[in-house]
Amino acid sequence: MIITRSPRSLDDPGLYQHYLDLVGDGDEFGATELAHALLDDGVPAQRIMVDLIGGTQARVGELWAANEWSVAREHAATAVNERVLAALAVGLSAPPRRGRITLACVDGEWHGLPARILGELLKMDGWRVDFLGASVPGPHLITHLHQTGPDAVALSCMIPTRLPRAHAAITACRAAGVPVIAGGRGMGPGGRYAERLGADAWAGSAEEAVARLGGDWPPPLAPEFPTEFLGDEEYSHLVRSRPQLIDTAMHRLAAVVPAVQHYDEQQLEATREDFGHIADFLAASLYLTEPHIFQDFTAWTAQVLAARRVPVSALRAGLRLVRDQLIDFPAATATLDLALADLPAS
């Protein structure tokens, strides 16, 4: 695609739509050309990365949730965004003068673009960055720390179901003597879960993380937060019984939702995955004793299903099938009851 008029700023909403159209069409060349044209016009690279690329990626997720884009199109657009970011970053890194950062996504966390954006901003600010990528197993992360001796670990967690693994990673990093700055939506409003999991600092955005790391770092070592409430008996039971819970729910579902009897293999597999998400978000809620984690998930799921013309009654039935198997666990049933009460009537 040839841009006939060089864009001058990010103030024009039409520019965001144009860029979204490019990545949605898989036009890597056009999207990269647009980003470079902005850079040539004097738009700071940080703004292009955070506002245009990051903002567009958030919009891509919204379009998938609204059933306007397929999973395939969402993945293709994400790949284009990653390539544009990489092309834009060429030659922008500053000489390392601050120290060394290990940057990683929590084990099981596959949303790597926000962390990639942070990595490029950190390099522009003079950090040497080891970006380990998405879904980094905890033992591999710790091995890397012992091999490289970084000044800090930046850990990204976008989905609350990964919080137990984030806790394990944070604990291991601190045991290795490396402070941790945590980020990502999965850390909760205001990053309140980050502190409870023992992180030394939290940042709500990539730019906030750069500012925090560029200030008085490392901060005074965070106190050890009492963790005896984490991973209690209910949480442990739910994690151990997850396969059986899903199998039983699937077996009973056809009796309460007759349409399931006519599902094809793809629909059945998607339904099984949905039960898995229910179990995982419920486990995260129990791990932190935070019912809102599960309530937010079920409210969002109801919207996603509605966009796909799946009635909320199906979600309600699924939650009750899970609840019926956990009647001996008061925290789990109370959390499910709160979520059920929050769902729309129809």
UniProtKB/TrEMBL annotation:
Pfam families: B12-binding, B12-binding_2
B12-binding domain: residues covered: 98-224
Alphabetized InterPro entries for the sequence: Cbl-bd_cap, Cobalamin-bd, Cobalamin-bd_sf, Met_Synthase/Corrinoid, Meth_synthase_dom
Cited SUPFAM superfamilies: Cobalamin (vitamin B12)-binding domain (SSF52242)
Matching Gene3D superfamilies: Cobalamin-binding domain, Methionine synthase domain
UniProt-listed PANTHER family: METHIONINE SYNTHASE (PTHR45833:SF1)
Name of the protein in its database record: Cobalamin-dependent protein
Source organism per UniProt: Actinoplanes oblitus
